[in-house]
TrEMBL record:
SUPFAM superfamilies: Thioredoxin-like. Keywords: Disulfide bond, Electron transport, Redox-active center, Transport. This is Thioredoxin. Residues 1-76 form the Thioredoxin-like fold domain. Belongs to the glutaredoxin family. Coiled coil: none annotated. The active site is at residues 10, 13. Does not function as a glutathione-disulfide oxidoreductase in the presence of glutathione and glutathione reductase. Has low thioredoxin activity in vitro. Disulfide bonds join 10-13.
Amino acid sequence: MKLEILGSGCTKCKRMYDNVNEAVKKAGIQAEVIKVEDLSEIVSRGILMTPSLFKDGEEVVAGRVPTVNEIIEILKGA
């Protein structure tokens, strides 16, 4: 599974990155977690609100920081 956190590097973006890593660890899931801060990459994907979380290329959260438990549900496909 590939998880990408897109954001400019703001506090919310860093918190989402930390929450995603904690969720992956708690869920015991194998995942590649990537932080994308390059503005041209973010714009090229049509992101309107950051932070944004992508799971295997699909945007699953935009413009807010989900809780660790919410991310676990997303990872498990609930």
